Amino acid sequence: MNGVSFDVRPAELFGLLGPNGSGKTTLFRILSTLMVPVAGRAIILGHDPAQDPDELRREIGVVFQAQSIDLKLTAAENLMHQGHLYGLRGTVLKRRIAEILGRVGLAERARDKAETFSGGMQRRLELAKGLLHGPKVLLLDEPTTGLDPGARRDLWQYLRILREEEQVTILVTTHLMEEAERCDRLVILNEGRVVALGTPAELKQEIGGDVIVMETKDPERLAGRIRTQFGVDTQVLETQVRIEKEHGHRFVMDLVQSFPGEIDSVSIAKPSLEDVFIRRTGHRFWTEEAKESFERKDTKR
Amino acid sequence: MTAAIPQGNRRTQELALPAFTLWWREIVRFYRQRARVVGVIASPVLFWIVIGSGFGKSFTSDSGTSQHYLDYFYPGALIMIVLFTSIFTMMSVIEDRKEGFLLSVLVAPVSRSAIVLGKVLGGTTLAAIQGLVFLVFAPFVGIHLGFSVFLLSALVVLLVSFALTALGFAIAWPMDSTQAFHAIINLFLIPLWLLSGALFPLSSASSWLRLLMQINPLTYGVEALRSVLYPASRGEFSLVASMATLVLFSLVMFGAAFVMVNRRSTKPAA
What we know:
The complex is a heterodimer. Chain A is α/β, with parallel strands linked by helices. Chain A contains 12 helices and 10 strands. Chain A has helices spanning about 25-30, 55-60, 75-85, 90-105, 120-130, 150-165, 175-180, 200-205, 220-230, 250-260, 275-280, 290-300; strands spanning about 15, 60-65, 135-140, 170-175, 185-190, 195-200, 210-215, 235, 240-245, 265-270. In chain A, a hairpin with a 2-residue loop joins β5 and β6. In chain A, α3 packs across α4 (about 90-105). By secondary structure, chain B is mainly α. Helices cover about 70% and strands about 0% of the residues of chain B. In chain B, about 45% of the residues are buried. In chain B, α1 crosses α6, α3 (about 70-90) packs across α7 and α6 (about 110-135) runs antiparallel to α11. The interface between A and B is large, with 44 and 38 residues.
């Protein structure tokens, strides 16, 4: 990682968006006190995770991508165990467990073993674990991994409620554009660097107008001709030529008429976060390289 | 939603309570897995009968006593059961790490010693229970299991379990696969046990083998147990010396586990 710097405001739902291998997980490990950075520092609530991990650990809640609940224990037992780790006990802990299970909608299943839960319920139990001790800051690493769209939506809805009603500051990593859209603000990471920082709307605004994407056999040649003929910036990605243009729908007509037979297909869309990523990095969100490094990491684990 | 964290004794908060809860989890996990419970009862019986009676024919003690080999083998078999159980319970360290459970413990405000203590005491409890189950067979080899004999045996079993579980923990901590753990453990287990006086007495070994056996800490476990169970037999070392060595062994192993856990680095902790 290199030159990654950003601030998260209190009670903000902040996203860390990046493809696999972009440094999200490394950053997450540093913030959650699991890893000491080689250089640089992080400050959360006035604590440096490298210098002062114990104080920080009391005040943050962490939800990992991997499953940390014990499937052989019941929901309540999992939380009992977690509470003890955080110094909670007795009736205080019991009350707190009942409260948090109610919040994540698992009150009815408190006495059931976690192995009988669906994926979405297990994730909610993870969340309950992270929230049990009432942290001011909640860190979540790819919290929706392995969830179906419905459960995914529920989880994000719950994060928003948490932010609004409890003023919890939430930092969440994701590699999904549609999740990043739901954040208040986000950073986009690529190969260990920050490529963009702002609200989703701000980031998309910097792309003036619409995004036109054309499929063609010889993208370099087409791009060159479009540049000379229309004087617009073009970007070549594999077999595609991309153009950002205001009032794109009119421009598309001109393009198609000017280069008959050369354009296989053309599409026009409002800018997405992926367009922001492409604009800033010059390549797609999912590159072959990133995929490979992801697979390498996968086999290693 | 602020949870009132009792501002009690910090040490209790960071050490005793977390260690207790980690211990409790080991025990709950154990009895929820029926196969493990069955194994605890069945394996000692099978082991002792099959190996003991098989060896019995081909073994003659040169000490001149007419002790049946099954009797001689009894303390060694007990230690072996404890040895296997203690070390293998610590495979759970690797599983915890792989599943992500360990991550959630590592980011909790828990001192690392609590993690060692909780896991090691959990494994110790399970191994000791298994050892004590095997003690039930003592009357069959003609041992009168009085209260004091039982108490002393239990103490030996506990010490051996604790030391070996700590050893298993220290080995398992840096590992990321159970296969690697198996490979390393087999390297340890078999020689450790073979050269512990469990199978043949020190007095019958050649001088260099004898030296190895004297270095082997497990020898003192077997010796201590033998002199508790058969007070009449003349042991190699006094009970007090054996016990002292076991205590030392336990402390060193626990220290090793403690050192392993406290390494904090720029590499991922889990």
